[in-house]
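Trying the structure run again after the queue cleared.
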Amino acid sequence: MKDGTVRRRRTRMAGALLSALALLTAATGCGGSTGSEASTKESAKGSAASANRVEPLTDPAKPQLPVTVSSSDGEKVTVRAADRIVPLSGSLSEIVFTLGLGDRVVARDITATFDQAEKLPVVTRNHDVSAESVLSLRPDLVLAETTTGPDEAMEQIRDAGIPVLVVAPAQGLDDVGPRIQTVADALGVPADGKRLTQRSEDRIAAVRKEIPTREEHPRVAFLYLRGSASVYLIGGRGSGATSLLEAAGAVDAGAEAGLEKDFTAITTEALAQAAPDAILVMTKGLESVGGVDGLVKIPGVAQTPAGMERRVVSVEDGVLLNYGPRTDQVLKSIVKQLYGDGS
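Done. Tokens:
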């Protein structure tokens, strides 16, 4: 097997791991307000959208096409129409809908769990794209991640003449703006991309200003749980949670403990080394092990400071690691659960 194929498959496995819990439950240059006026209007609304809904920009502009953009796979992609869009990740779907172009989306993958996308047909099986399902919907643009696959399915879509834009995966808060702008540029709405980026960054900054100042930063371990498959993992460097935890004024206990892999099987020794004061989990993952009562029964958890205090931070699995327009809501939820009233 060629090295490139091995690397792509490993990358896909890591990406699938971050979104797999979803399986357990189953925009622009002209028009509207612009510049600082638009940013003020959008920011003033705050983070009012519910955890299961996205909040589209007000007065979204009409796409100005064609455009030619750079894809993260090194290709140049020309987008001539954006009337039938297929985003192949929940995060990319979220960006398209928040840019105000959700009425152009004709399908979703299984990780797009927010309300506005709920009734769209699913074109993935587990985490594999069904080329036949995608092509049957006659898309004029497919948005994919570098983790999207299998390669054969993606090549089949390209061979059919469908433009495929590949977007680099998010690893932290610094990726929020670039990913929004990449999608907005491809959809012919670059000004709305800037507007949404500004709104997102302003809201994240507002949350960070309210984080209590502490001399000692709480140590938080990110655990990936899938009780139905007896999968219990602790996140290390590259899990995707480090940037979020640091933004919340916490320390990623797994990364700090020297866990170099994205995820490592939970052992008593690994948890003892991480010694978390709190545990971060995805909501469905926590449900899959029977809630907090079941979590503390996992070997080693009850012996940690977090386990002894039953201190668990839970965030919806469909949004936790998206690093997109709703990241301020994720950060706000983590901060509230971690610090309570700030005392």
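The first helix runs from residue 3 to 19. Worth checking whether this holds up in the mutant runs.
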